[in-house]
């Protein structure tokens, strides 16, 4: 962000409010873990819900807005960049070429299928993209990473995350029922869970009851699936830049203004800084140039910053807009998840996973 916009005194009230919501969300997650053994609603989701509740009862005055907007945009982009430190080429190669190609193929098929379904149900373009990426890659994290690239607003993000979060809990509880229903082995179920469950902690929750083999395979498949986030975000970034360039041309035609001589967007708009940072950190991790002592702090920082950003998004949500999209969003999320499960089952059969 521009140096002039980074004014700590101006940003402090809003950032402090987002941090307070984040702490409350993390405390509630801790309470869940102590009471039931695992968090059915993670802090990331709770931060949105708490932020939305606060926004419904109190509209922040102007002095709070710069820090809230800073948290929702810059801190989220910083979190996405830090995720690159958790990616390595070794992780990709560990699953084997057949399953690796299958995972990539499923993501590449599921995203456009889910997007077209969302548009068919009448969802706005940005919400359809968020739901497609969330269902096909890694749920909340994918939605959070894609949102700044396609310039989705708080209502779009909150709607997408709220409904995918609720469905994610349902999937964790119900997916093990497919083991006896379809006669799945531990390995087959692990692949299915890794391809369909949203978050890594949820994969653990969904596979532990089935056995250690299912947990190990499911976690590995899930991590490889998460790796698709980088290429997908980069692709969407390039696509968004082309759309913006077309919009500039249309505006110039209407207003009669002269186009820039090059007719090109700045490189910083073509490939956002945080995507460059993400890819650079992933490359350094693959080359084993990131100190191992920094990996856990980087992952923890990315998670914490993402929760703060979600709190900021919740504080900017208009509940009436979210409620208005409820039925269509729910239908899109449910049906696209069923499509993903069907494709995943087909892949398991085609690859002959025992």
From TrEMBL:
Q: Where located? A: Cell membrane
The answer, when asked if Phosphoprotein is one of the entry's keywords, is: no
- Which keywords are on file for this protein? Cell membrane, Membrane, Transmembrane, Transmembrane helix
Membrane-spanning residues: 40-58, 70-93, 99-117, 129-151, 157-179, 191-214, 220-240, 270-287, 293-317, 329-351
Signal peptide coordinates = none
Q: Which Pfam families match?
A: Cons_hypoth698
The cellular component terms of Gene Ontology attached to this UniProt record, alphabetical and capped at eight, are: plasma membrane
Q: Which top-rank group of organisms is this from?
A: Bacteria
Q: Does the keyword Membrane apply?
A: yes
Q: Write down the membrane topology.
A: Multi-pass membrane protein
Q: Which PANTHER family match?
A: INNER MEMBRANE PROTEIN YEIH-RELATED (PTHR30106), UPF0324 INNER MEMBRANE PROTEIN YEIH (PTHR30106:SF2)
- What family is it from? Belongs to the UPF0324 family.
Indicate what this protein is called per its UniProt record.
Answer: UPF0324 membrane protein
- Species the sequence originates in: Aliidongia dinghuensis
């Amino acid at each position: 962000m521009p140096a002039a916009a980074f004014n700590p005194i101006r940003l402090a009230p809003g950032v402090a409010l987002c941090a307070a919501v984040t702490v409350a969300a993390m405390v509630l997650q801790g309470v869940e873990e102590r009471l039931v053994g695992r968090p059915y609603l993670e802090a990331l989701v709770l931060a949105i819900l708490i932020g939305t509740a606060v926004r419904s009862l109190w509209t922040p005055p102007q002095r709070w807005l710069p820090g809230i907007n800073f948290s929702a945009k810059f801190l989220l982009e910083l979190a996405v960049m830090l995720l690159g430190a958790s990616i390595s080429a070794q992780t990709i190669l560990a699953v084997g070429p057949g399953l690796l190609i299958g995972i990539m193929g499923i993501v590449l098929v599921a995203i456009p299928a889910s997007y077209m379904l969302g548009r068919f149900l009448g969802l706005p373009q940005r919400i359809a993209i968020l739901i497609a990426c969330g269902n096909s890659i890694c749920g909340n994290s994918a939605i959070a990473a894609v949102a700044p690239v396609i310039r989705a607003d708080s209502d779009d993000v909150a709607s997408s995350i709220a409904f995918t979060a609720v469905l994610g809990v349902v999937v964790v509880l119900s997916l093990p029922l497919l083991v006896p229903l379809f006669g799945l082995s531990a390995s087959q179920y692990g692949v299915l869970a890794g391809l369909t469950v949203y978050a890594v902690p949820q994969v653990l929750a969904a596979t532990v009851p089935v056995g250690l083999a299912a947990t190990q395979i499911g976690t590995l498949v899930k991590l490889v699936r998460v790796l698709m986030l980088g290429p997908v975000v980069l692709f969407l970034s390039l696509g968004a830049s082309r759309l913006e360039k077309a919009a500039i041309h249309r505006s110039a035609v209407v207003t009669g203004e002269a186009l820039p001589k090059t007719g090109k967007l700045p490189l910083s708009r073509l490939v956002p800084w945080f995507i460059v940072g993400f890819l650079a950190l992933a490359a350094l991790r693959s080359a084993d140039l990131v100190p191992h002592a920094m990996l856990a702090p980087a992952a923890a920082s990315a998670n914490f910053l993402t929760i703060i950003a979600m709190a900021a998004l919740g504080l900017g949500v208009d509940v009436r807009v979210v409620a208005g999209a409820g039925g269509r969003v729910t239908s899109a999320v449910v049906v696209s998840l069923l499509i993903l499960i069907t494709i995943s089952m087909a892949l398991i059969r085609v690859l002959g996973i025992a």
